[in-house]
Amino acid sequence: MMKTISQQIIARYTARTPKSQAMLERARRVLPGGNTRTGVHYAPYPAFMVQGSGAYLTDLDGNRYLDFLNNFTSLIHGHAHPALQDAAQKQLANGTAFASPMVGQVELAEMICERVPSVEQVRFCNSGTEATMLAVRAARAFTGRSGILKMHGGYHGSHDLAAATADPEADRGIPNGLRQNIFFAPFNDLNAVENILAEHAHAIAGILVEPVPNAGGVPIPREGYLQGLRALANQFNVLLIFDEVITLRLSEGGYQKIANVMPDLTAMGKIIGGGFAVGAFGGNRDIMLQFDPARQDRILHSGTFNGHSVTMAAGIASLQNLPQAEIDRINALGDKLAAGFDDAFQEAGIVGQTTQVGSLVQVHWRGGEIYNMGDIAEGFRNAGDLPYLLHLAMLNRGIYSAARGEYNISTVVTESEVNRAITSFNESLHELKPYAAENYPALIL
Ligand SMILES: Cc1ncc(COP(=O)(O)O)c(C=O)c1O
């Protein structure tokens, strides 16, 4: 009987999504595994989404989902927001790309510099991946050193330095020689950072850190951690680079404004593109002026689509519609969603909890404190296939999230949608309880 619960959940999913399953078969012929973005794959196969409107997604089979993933946080205003659409369409009518500087770039740069305390100048690129890659290049050029200190489990995009982990076996295709320039510390561990800097600061350009690692499972920075990183960077004369590709959404000035810590460089993306492909990096004027193309010793940074006119237009509309009051509202909805999920775990009698900062919520499968990736991975290991089944059980109830238990909230969501997600979470945990009791008794309270 216990096995049938998992089979029932999977069977219900496949019965709802036959057209997606057929499309995946077709996709497999021309896309490896039918996929062109690792993070959107989940078992048994992902649903193909064909339409987004406000807080809702519709898949190929016509199922509707309340979207709590929002293209992994980039769609802070949900789908097809009229103001963003209007801005993009007006620009489309005037042509898309010119091999010249464009006014929209100046306007969006002004908005970002005004909002983000440490950013005096900014450059645009096409993804968060490029943003962290170029912020690192800026730091290396400025310091004349090659080393980068980053945190275990941190995600900074898909270029080699960002994707490299401490495990060479896992890093297929990434040159091993690169590793001599990468130093790893656990998140939330200032001693580890201090020890590395004490020994290697002469070879290190900067510390690259996401203030709250989102893909890293939303461990909350300990009191004084980010300030401590700033102090250590000063003490050892290395740069502090914040990856705010996701955390920029947490206040008008990103998490740096909340923590009151000024990094030297900041990587940005997602919400500043109004739904289009975007990245940006910026910071201290002296560092950024290295990119002044009139300088003989300028850092080369070209790109056919840098500062794309449609992206700039939609990005401006995105930030215009994102005053602090609106951010406060969705952050409070994040509080509500996280508290609702925590209560649901309690009520179902299953070990689990959320970590949450503002509109970012992450589900965990363990009790106790959660400070870094080690804590998080342990919970997931012990939960076996429960996270996967919970994800499918939520999809079956029309709630869309990341398979790894990541939720985020857009501005088109209200209390009523949050309540629906909590109810579905409750129902899903109850559905799973007998299966959990049979297969993971240690997770039963
Ligand atoms: C913190 C962080 N940095 C960088 C990136 C890479 O951004 P992109 O996917 O736009 O390349 C991501 C993407 O999710 C991210 O979460």
List the helices and strands and how they pair.
Layout: H1 2-16, H2 18-30, E1 49-53, E2 56-59, E3 64-67, H3 82-93, H4 103-115, E4 121-125, H5 128-143, E5 147-151, H6 160-163, E6 182-185, H7 190-200, E7 204-209, H8 225-236, E8 239-243, H9 254-259, E9 265-269, E10 279-283, H10 285-288, H11 309-320, H12 324-348, E11 353-357, E12 360-364, H13 373-383, H14 386-396, E13 399-400, E14 406-408, H15 415-439
Parallel strand pairs: 3-13, 5-6, 5-7, 7-8, 8-9
Antiparallel strand pairs: 1-2, 2-3, 4-10, 9-10, 11-12, 12-14
The structure holds pyridoxal-5'-phosphate.
Structure commentary:
This protein is of the alpha/beta class and about 450 residues long. The protein has two domains: about 1-80 and about 325-445, Aspartate Aminotransferase, domain 1, CATH 3.90.1150; about 80-320, Aspartate Aminotransferase, domain 2, CATH 3.40.640.10. The protein is built from 15 helices and 14 strands. It has helices at about 1-15, 20-30, 80-95, 105-115, 130-145, 160-165, 190-200, 225-235, 255-260, 285-290, 310-320, 325-350, 375-385, 385-395, 415-440; strands at about 50-55, 55-60, 65, 120-125, 145-150, 180-185, 205-210, 240-245, 265-270, 280-285, 355, 360-365, 400, 405-410. A seven-stranded mixed sheet has the order 4-10-9-8-7-5-6, with helices on both faces. The chain has a four-stranded mixed sheet with strand order 1-2-3-13. Helix 4 (about 105-115) packs parallel to helix 11 (about 310-320). The radius of gyration is 22 Å and the shape is globular. The chain starts with a helix and ends in a 6-residue tail after the last helix. The mean pLDDT is about 95.
